[in-house]
């Protein structure tokens, strides 16, 4: 940490940070765009893998009652997507003291980066033995840990590796349109994360000045019992017709968890043959097959999501035009659309 180095080292470190800040600000314009990322467990799981992280995956939550977490433990953190409201006051104190030396919090300084920001803030605070950060995020954490939140966010936004991984999850932009002033202000959606750090529950929102402290986790208490009412309160502040929320959990890789259970059950059956243990092993093997199928589906969906279909569409239109079928299909579709509009107005 900066406080533990000598005066000479401190001056050198401060000078190095100023140089990095200046270089980062100069390159912000050339840092490239960050694309929007869908709130999808497959997208987030593959994004984490792109970062080089192993041992974790993301699962979508359809409710936040106690029983939903039983088959997902250990739960390392929660990712929450909601409609962003400007100038909303934090529900609890924002941490700006020396706790930031032991909490990794990067402030968001660039648009559309909140998905990766929420995930990285969680991963770099996760000390569970199941989680392997990999060389890229390990080096990134070591390099930026002594920075302040703004400098961390600036460094993150200029990481070519992180940005490339982030943008690889997005749909391709096939057309460029002239920027137009919208007649109605578009809704903005934002990702934040919740997790326990050093015995307290924190909300990691990159648009804040620091983590929001939601209080201690008492001995024997589940941190999820603290955070679930907080999320419910946040949801209830919106109108009844607002349904655009998404909640996902960062959990240990299920295949790894099941394989570990099989190992311990196998050791037990060697000492004492039991039908229950053998049946449990068969059940776990089925769950592993389901996980393999799910991950294969994630890969297929990502390939479809990121594929450029424009050449296929152009070729199809050319074939239809040459066969003199394009215009009749167009007129028929136009007629159906006009009929639908008339029915709606009636």
Automatic annotation (TrEMBL):
Keyword Transit peptide: no
Organism: Bicyclus anynana
Residues the UniProt record annotates as site (Important for enzyme activity): 205
Entry annotation: catalytic residues: 114, 190
GO cellular component term of the entry, any: cytoplasm
Protein name per Swiss-Prot or TrEMBL: Ubiquitin carboxyl-terminal hydrolase
Catalytic activity, reaction form: Thiol-dependent hydrolysis of ester, thioester, amide, peptide and isopeptide bonds formed by the C-terminal Gly of ubiquitin (a 76-residue protein attached to proteins as an intracellular targeting signal)
Domain of life: Eukaryota
The entry's keywords: Hydrolase, Protease, Thiol protease, Ubl conjugation pathway
EC number: 3.4.19.12
Span of domain UCH catalytic: 33-252
Example GO molecular function: cysteine-type deubiquitinase activity
Function of the molecule: Catalytic component of the polycomb repressive deubiquitinase (PR-DUB) complex, a complex that specifically mediates deubiquitination of histone H2A monoubiquitinated at 'Lys-119' (H2AK118ub1). Mediates bisymmetric organization of the PR-DUB complex and is involved in association with nucleosomes to mediate deubiquitination. Does not deubiquitinate monoubiquitinated histone H2B. Required to maintain the transcriptionally repressive state of homeotic genes throughout development. The PR-DUB complex has weak or no activity toward 'Lys-48'- and 'Lys-63'-linked polyubiquitin chains.
Residues the record marks as site: Transition state stabilizer: 108
Similarity comment: family membership: Belongs to the peptidase C12 family.
């Amino acid at each position: 940490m900066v406080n533990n180095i000598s005066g000479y080292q401190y001056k050198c470190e401060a000078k190095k940070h100023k140089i990095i800040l200046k270089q980062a600000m100069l390159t912000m314009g050339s840092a490239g765009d960050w694309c929007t990322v869908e709130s999808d467990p497959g997208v987030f799981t593959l994004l984490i893998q792109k970062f080089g992280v192993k041992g974790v995956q993301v699962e979508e939550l359809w409710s936040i009652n106690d029983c939903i977490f039983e088959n997902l433990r250990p739960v390392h953190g929660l990712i929450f997507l909601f409609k962003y409201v400007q100038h909303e006051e934090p529900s609890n104190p924002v941490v700006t003291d020396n706790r930031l030396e032991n909490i990794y919090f990067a402030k968001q300084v660039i648009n559309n980066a909140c998905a990766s920001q929420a995930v990285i803030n969680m991963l770099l605070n996760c000390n569970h033995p199941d989680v392997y950060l990999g060389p890229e995020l390990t080096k990134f954490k070591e390099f930026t840990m002594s920075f302040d939140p703004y400098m961390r966010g600036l460094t993150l936004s200029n990481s070519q590796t992180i940005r490339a991984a982030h943008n690889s999850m997005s749909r391709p932009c096939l057309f460029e349109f002239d920027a137009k002033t919208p007649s109605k202000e578009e809704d903005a959606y934002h990702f934040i994360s919740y997790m326990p750090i050093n015995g307290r529950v924190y909300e990691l929102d990159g648009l804040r000045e620091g983590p929001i402290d939601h209080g201690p986790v008492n001995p024997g208490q589940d941190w999820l019992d603290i955070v679930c009412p907080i999320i419910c309160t946040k949801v209830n502040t919106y109108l009844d017709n607002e349904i655009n929320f998404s909640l996902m959990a960062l959990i240990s890789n299920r295949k790894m968890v099941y394989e570990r259970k099989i190992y311990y059950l196998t050791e037990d059956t060697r000492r004492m043959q039991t039908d229950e243990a053998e049946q449990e092993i068969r059940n776990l093997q089925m769950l592993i097959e389901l996980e393999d199928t799910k991950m294969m589906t994630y890969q297929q969906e990502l390939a479809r999501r990121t594929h450029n279909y424009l050449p296929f569409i152009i070729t199809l239109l050319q074939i239809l035009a040459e066969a003199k079928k394009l215009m009749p299909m167009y007129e028929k579709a136009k007629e159906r659309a006009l009929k639908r509009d008339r029915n709606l107005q009636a």
